[in-house]
Amino acid sequence: MTAPFDTAPVRAYLTDLQHRIAVALGAADGQAFGVDAWHKPPGARLGGDGITRILEDGALIERGGVGFSHVRGAALPPSASAARPELAGCGFEALGVSLVMHPRNPYCPTVHMNVRFFVATRDGASAAMWFGGGMDLTPYYGFEDDARHFHGVCRDALAPHGDALYPRFKKWCDDYFYLKHRDEPRGIGGIFYDDFNEAGFDGGFAMMRDVGDAFLAAYLPIIERRRALPFGERERAFQAYRRGRYVEFNLVLDRGTHFGLQSGGRTESILMSMPPRAEWRYDWHPEPDSAEAALTRDFLTARDWLAA
């Protein structure tokens, strides 16, 4: 047991990160993100506050959200204690920034990023702490230079913390963002880590900052070079079909979604990651040798995107 961690520096960084990302993406779209500040009411199962920044029906971003939350609860939900049964019954404090961007143009990929800090408490003392986060890219039409760029920025963000982290977190991302019931990846991956405390608080916080600060460099160049590509109903229909896979993962498998809903979190903010339009088709397959077929054949596979 240790004294409670001071979360003030983490909160200050996260709220600034949220602001910087929303301003940059809003400028790219030409429409500012709306701001929804919220507080959990007295007596709620989960206490705390947050800010949800949302943009809908923009020229570039059809629906996007950047959420900050800082919540506290009396007992860890099952999704958080399943891998740490010794912490069952502990209270907790969690704060983080999570975002999902669904661009309008199908040639622009969807992106997710999350950085978070978590403290489990018992009898007023800290029983455990850890960091988590990462970012991953979900294209609808694949471009190898986009994949190499995204993974290169992820690798460079982790490099100051050890050369072994990128391949380790890249594999973790490939394994995590996988639709087991479909036997297919959600996208081309990126990096993902959780329950990370091996570097202590200072090392974990430094890595959180480097990952969070790398997001705009990883994503903005991709959408800027794809946003003007012409598209039609065929591409929009395929985008909606693939977005259905995104919905399936978030609702069926995602630990963050489960944690938020099981702990009594703010549903509107948790589900801001849902796309504005998605479709399901029964046993549908793209035409052989089409651009749509190339996504599955060439991109939805665990590739080493940075191989020479």
Lay out the secondary structure:
Layout: H1 8-29, E1 34-39, E2 46-56, E3 61-73, H2 78-81, E4 91-103, E5 110-122, E6 125-138, H3 144-158, H4 165-176, E7 178-179, E8 184-185, E9 189-196, H5 200-226, H6 233-252, H7 255-262, H8 267-270, H9 291-299
Antiparallel strand pairs: 1-2, 2-3, 3-4, 4-5, 5-6, 6-9, 7-8
Helix pairs in contact: 1-5, 3-5
Characterise the protein shown here.
- The protein has 308 residues and is an alpha+beta fold.
- It has one domain: oxygen-dependent coproporphyrinogen oxidase (3-Layer(aba) Sandwich), CATH 3.40.1500.10.
- Helix content is 39%, strand content 27%.
- It has 9 helices and 9 strands.
- The strands form 2 sheets. It has a 7-stranded antiparallel beta sheet. It has a two-stranded antiparallel sheet with strand order 7-8.
- Strand 5 and strand 6 form a beta hairpin.
- Helix 1 packs parallel to helix 5 (200-226).
- 41% of the residues are buried.
- The mean pLDDT is 91.
- Its EC number is 1.3.3.3.
- Belongs to the aerobic coproporphyrinogen-III oxidase family.
- It is found in: Cytoplasm.
- Its cofactor is a divalent metal cation.
Index terms:
308 residues; alpha+beta; oxygen-dependent coproporphyrinogen oxidase; 7-stranded antiparallel β-sheet; two-stranded antiparallel sheet; 9 strands; 39% helix; globular; porphyrin biosynthesis
